[in-house]
Amino acid sequence: MSLVTRSATSKNLTASKHARLAEIAERCGQVRHETWHRYGGLGGLERKNRDIRDEDWMSGPCLGLETALPARIWKATLEDSLNAIKATRAAAVAECSKIIWRSTRTDAEKKHLTTMLNNGTWPKNPLLHRLMRKHWPHGESRVYNQIVLDVQSYTCFTLNGQFWIKVSSRVPGKRIVIPLAKFDRPITGAIRVRVRDDGEVDILYTVDEANACVNRPCGTREVGVDKGYSEVFTDSDGDRHGEGLGKLLSQESDHLKNVYAARQKIESIAKDSKKKGKDAKVARIKKNNLGRQKLNARKRRHRQKVRTEIFTATHAILDKAGVVVVEDLTKQIRGYDRGRKMNRRLAGWVKGFIQEAIESVSRRRGALVNVVNAAYTSQWLSGCSAFGKKIGEFIHCPLDRDVFVADHVAAVNILHRKNDTGIRRFLPYREVKQVLEERSRQTERPCLVSGQCGVEQSCLRLPRRDSSCSGNTINGERIISNPCK
Predict the structure, then answer these.
(1) 322 and 392 part of one domain
(2) Which of 324, 414, 311, 300 is nearest to 356 (CA)?
(3) Which pTM was predicted?
């Protein structure tokens, strides 16, 4: 079982304590910035974290003395930044490995190139060097509001029913005491103090996933799910889960559009005032009109609402499923222009967070997750062995006058992809289309003109074309949504 991050918020933190913590966080940000500047590229490729700390920060240039921080604080920040650099490099290596294994090279060449990626000798190969330069650009850090502390840099205690935590300060032997609100769980391990703009701080810590999260048993069925924007999931039974997600995302996107449009006007006024030498007016505008306290607080509330919606929907899926088949949407979707308004709203789609929720909840509840290729899942009608025409949330069959719900069709196709050996997970979408077109050519079709050929279409678990569904129509075409019960 893995670890999950939890947070505790301070309560009535004094201004002097907040200022001292903000100063420490600012200096930690300088350590983080210097670390990324020096080791965010090839400079830290073949060096261990301990060697960097001992040779560059404790001896030689003695960068640790320039931080004006206690050794424990800057060492923990340095270690955290170096681990973040390693994580970004590992993600780039994984992406380059996918590209290598999708190529037409022999298996021996692919294994050799993958070995060079994993052991860090890829700069010697021009191809790998070019790929890594593309997927692993030199990073930088703009985080100046966090303090990383090890287990010996803080202590916790309870006084009069109030939970408190004492953290190290810049003065040896004098710790900063922080009161915590609505908290009764012990904090262990390394922590991260996040300084907020509203005068409070968050304490981020890790706990065992088994003790902190829901871990009741999962269901027994096998279900395919399609990730959506208006709802979190549509499963292969036609049920929708988390139908409030689209409203949350759209409302927040529209609100931020109006807010930033107004802020842009105020910024232009500030620029004009600065040109005219009205420094006092510029200072008042920056202090009273261009702050981020309300924006950051709203962002936190919005994230909590979205998280609740997504995890509630995920638990609803796992209540009936022991095997969940999901589409792979890790790759960036390009080439679709749905207009400025819809593109702006889709920019806030949390598909990565949805995938994270599926993996974490299924791991806790003992379910199995299968990830499949997502290409053409919402356009292919398996019962007709043909590509449908997607219009809005519906997909029209080209062989008859039936209309299907696109999300339901996608969920059914995703479930079929689990056992489809012809369409692998990383098969390029152009080749997926070729496979589907070949299957369409090889399928016998009914005679739609005379209706007397006698060849029936197999529905392959698509919604049944039952007479009781014929009442719902669009322009004379029947709408087939959920299976008729």
Answers:
(1) no
(2) 311
(3) 0.73
